[in-house]
Every structure is written in structure tokens, then in C-alpha cells.
Amino acid sequence: MSSLPFLPGNSFTDPTKTKFHLCHSLNYKNGYSVPAAYPTVGIGGEPLKVNQLSEAELDSLANQKPTLTYGQAQPQPPEDFIPAHKAFDKKVLMFKAYYKQTVHESPNEHYRIRPVNIYYYLEDDSISVVEPVVENSGMPQGKLIKRQRLPKDDQGSHWHWKDLNMSMNVTFYGKVFHIVDCDKFTQDYLESEGIELNGPSSMPADPYNHHRVESAKLQMFKTPSDFDKLKQFLTMDRKVLRFYCVWDDRDQMFGEMRPFVLHYYLVDDTVEVREVRTPNSGRDPFPVLIGRHKLPKNRDNVESSFPAVVMELSEHEIKDWFTPADLDIGKTVYVYGRRFLLYDCDDFTRAYYAHRLGRGMGSVDVNQPHPELPKMEIPLYNGFGSMEDSMQNCLSLIPQPPKKDYIKMMENDHKILRFEATMDSVHPEDNNRRFIISYRLSDDMISIYEPPVRNSGIIGGKFLEATRITKPDCDPENPEFYTPADFAIGNIIVVFKHRFQITDADEYVLRYMEAHADTFPPQSQALQSFRARHGRQTEDVVKNTPVQIQRTGGDLSDLVQEVRFQLQKDNYMNHSSLREAFLWYDKDRSGKIDKSEVRNLCRRCNLPVDDDLLDALIAECDHNKDGQIDYFEFIKFLNWS
């Protein structure tokens, strides 16, 4: 069989051969490997026809040099020189890498992952960078860096294959590439050159490509719910949940608890917050704090690329909105950074929550004790100026003039009570000084005048300007001022530590007191002293009526002479004011007025005479008996003595 040619169909198996293993050449002894005896059989159990050498023969062969036996060996011819461009022709190292490209002004991406292949040509140490072309990418792709030797640093060195490894960054012309993997040839070549390779890393996913892949997938749509917005409008229209809430802002400067009303419109799930205006709150009326719109739970939970300057939030940006289930009594709701505590609701809201959600709604007490308002403390009167003017400086920042009683001023215009007084002093030279005290009824001011006396050594004239005088030893905060009732005959009046004793008064004072019997009762000291001084009986008089005097027949002429003499003595007539009043009635500037107008003129000038006596005085001035009174004749008659 062995002589048969080894052709297909002529191969036969030897049934006597059953073992085809190769004999081992090592044995183990005590855990150590030792050389075994030389094998005597080969594969299949066939004996090996070789000469087995003994140990002595092996030693002799080891100690005998071949050159002594066989002679000098022929030198082997050197190998032929193979240039690098031929030895490394078409041998290229390929690395997989990527770089990040920043994307500006794009709502879908901030950066882009650009995968590239780095090819290193061993024949001339040149490098090229190529980006795989992606169909319909919209970006220029292909060869990024042409094949060339790339500079490594500023010292003139270039990138070499020894500088390249996986999971490292390389910089080509300022662009950073991260190497993630290499092919099988590159890995075997670097390992054969004794370079230890790093472990490979994964290529990061491109967010834009991921978005394109997701958008290219088959779209899955959810079946819309059976809830109809039109049905919601028809069933929930004009149904509003009303919650009473407070905004607690007391942790801020000048903060307070302000009441508000939160309305939840069930027709479109919108919310509005209205302010509850309280009287004397010091705030302008601004009823709507937050307008009606859908209220998000977290306004800031949106993408940073959302153009919030030009667009409003919608359901595409915010998915979580306030619902009736999120509102409850005693719960704090955050609305755009404001904390609203819901403390009560109306009856419809309670019924809605009990029927729809099965939730009972109570109430929370948020009333707080009202703080005591600070009281304005008025400082003590310092004595400068009048008390009314000083009080205005305390009541307002810009002092206003004190209000005057204009009705009293109009009713008592030109009404002055005159009293005669002497100074009560410890100095003897001041006891005989005579003064005229004038009390103005229009504003309750007192002025003091001292008639000049020749050769007295004292300059007379105005002793005190018109001012209000307080009583001695009175409370400065609640001062008591002198009134006409205090000016009785014999009373002492203290004016700025000067004591004056009332000695007399004119007839007009008594008439004024009798006319105002409600202010001065008949048993008052002032009225009794004046009546006793002038010999008048106590009787009741009616206000604003002339005094009725009992007369006898033929005494009218005597009374006229007495009135003329008394007017001349007291210098009663004020010619300047009388002249102005006469000209006011003399419309045609003829110098004459009617008798009825003269009567009104005398009443206007407060002439203290009766009507019949006044008619007698006017008749004395009517020399022509035509009812026209000449002004100069009237003045001449009054000043006649």
C-alpha cells in the first residue's frame, strides 16, 4: 500500500494504528518539569529510525568545535538592502478618533461629535485625517488634513507612530483629536515593536444624530382620551373654585401678611390671584396681582435654550400644571416665588371637593393680634410763638397755618371790649399808671395801651401787642385763656407777671354782656359789677335788640344832647371807618345819603343808641327837611359841644 501513489481515492487507513498523539518530551517530578527520555515512537505508534546518542557522545559533541572537525565555515552573504518606501509600501496604521465641534445659536444641540480616521503611513511617517462621509449630513466632510508630516511642537519635531496610542489626545494644527481605537494590523504592529497599548474607549454619542435617529423612527401615537374640551366648557363654565389665602412676607424688610383671593377656573384650568383691599392700608388699589392663565408648578423647569424673551410658556415646555388636587386648606402654594397660605374657601369649593375628590375642607385661623399703633407724643410748649403755631410743627412735616374760626371773626368783626385798669405793683411809682385793655371778640386777643401823661416820666403808648393771654399757674399743655367773664370790676389780671386791676369799662361792655345773656348769666360777677357801677337794674334782655330805657315827656332833647356829649367825650366815632361807610352808601358821590341809609350806617358802626333816639339824631341833621343827610353836617353835629 505504501507504494501506491497518494492520489484521491488511493488513500487507505491502517487498522493497526490507533494512537496518533505526539509523545511528550517533558515529565514532572516533585512539581518540577524534567526532560523525558527521547521518544522512540512517532505519531501512530511507528518506531523512529534514528540513532540515539549517549550522554558521553553528547558531552564530546558539546566540547568539540565544529570548525576543528569540518573546517572554517563559509560566511553567509549579507542580505540585500531594502529601502523603506519598498519595505513599508502600502503599510498604514489606522486609528479611530473624534473631536468636538461647538455649535452656537442652535436650540437642539450645544456641541457635535465628529468621528475621524487617522492614517499613519509608515513609508514616510506622514499622517492624514479623514472624516467619513455621512449622507445628507449637511456638513462638508471628507479629508480634513491632507497627507503630510505633522509638526508636534515648536522645536521642529514631528509626530511619530511611537507617539500614538489608544485613549489619548493628539493635537493637529490646534485641533484636539481623541483616539479611541485602532485596527488589527495597527495593534499587531505596535505590539511587535514592543509598545504597550492602552485599552480602547467608546465613541461618545452625537446628540444631534441621536435626535435624528429618534425622529426617523416610526412614530407611535397615543389614543386621545375620551375627555372632550367642549364638554368641559359646557359643564364647567362659570364654575370657579375660590380660596382665601394670605401672602406672608414678614421675613423681608417692611413685610406683612396681605390677604388675597385665589380663583381656579374649572372651564380651562386657569388661575388668577386678586388682592383684597383693606381700608387705610396705605397702598394704591391694584386688584389683580397675577392675571388669569395656566399656572406652572415650577416655572424654572424649562430648557436653558428656550427663548423666554420672545415666547410664552406652553404645554410643550411645561408638563406639570396646578390642578384642583394640588390645592388644599392649610397648604402653602408657591406662585412665582410667593408663598400663599390657603386658609379658607367658599361653600361651592367645599361641595366640589367633597363630591369630586372626597375631601373635606376646613379652615385655618390666620388672624393675628393687631399691634398697638405708636402714639404721637407732643413735646412740651417751649414758649416761642403761639401754641397753635408750635402745634402745627408737630402735626405735619410741612407746617400749615392754624385754622381760624371765620364765622366767629365775621360775627364779631370790629367788636372790642375796652376796660380801664391800673397796675398793681410793689413799686409805688407804678401804682398810679392808667391802662386801657382792649379785648377783641373776633379772635380773643388782648392789647394794652397806656395813655401818655405829660411830665410823668413814663413814655406812654402801646404796652402790649394783640395776643392771647393765659391765666397764671395753668397747665402748659392745656392752657386756659382769659375770657370776657374774667374782666369784672376789681378783678386782678396777670399779664406776663404784670398785675392789672380792672377799675372801669365802657357802656358797650355792659350792653354786650346783657345781649349775650347765655354767655354771661345775670348773676355773674362781671355783669353784676358793671350794673352796680352804672346803676342799672338786673333784667333779662334779648340778644341783638336795643336797650329799652324808660323816659318821661320832654326828655328826648335832653337825651340827644347827652348822647352828643358822651360821643364827644369818649371819642367814639371813628371818622375814617365812618367816611368809608358813608361813601359805600353814596353811590352817585353827591355827598348826601337817605335817612334810612344813615340808620343802617349807624347800626353798622355799632352806635349804641335806641331807634327813637337815633331818629331824633337824624332829624337834627336834616336841616332842609328833604330826607337827605350831608356827611359833613352829620360829623359836625356829632362833634358839636
From TrEMBL:
CC annotations in GO: axoneme; mitotic spindle
Q: Which UniProt keywords apply?
A: Calcium, Cell projection, Cilium, Cytoplasm, Cytoskeleton, Flagellum, Repeat
EF-hand domain span = 573-608, 609-641
Q: Which GO terms describe its biological process?
A: cilium-dependent cell motility; mitotic cytokinesis; mitotic spindle organization
Q: Which GO molecular function terms does the record list?
A: alpha-tubulin binding; calcium ion binding
Localization annotation: Cytoplasm, Cytoskeleton, Flagellum axoneme
Instruction: Write down a Pfam family by its short name.
Output: DM10_dom
Cite the DM10 domain residue spans from the record.
89-194, 237-357, 413-517
PANTHER family in alphabetical order: EF-HAND DOMAIN C-TERMINAL CONTAINING PROTEIN, EF-HAND DOMAIN-CONTAINING PROTEIN 1
Name this polypeptide is given = EF-hand domain-containing protein 1-like
Organism of origin: Branchiostoma floridae
